[in-house]
Amino acid sequence: MHDELIKAVEAGEFNTMPAIH
Description:
The chain is an all-alpha fold. It is built from one helix and no strands. The N and C termini lie close together (11 Å). The model has no long low-confidence stretch (mean pLDDT 70).
């Protein structure tokens, strides 16, 4: 996982992949 993904998840913009959360 990249920092970008983690930041996106924390921001709540990565709703497409709830599994990452």
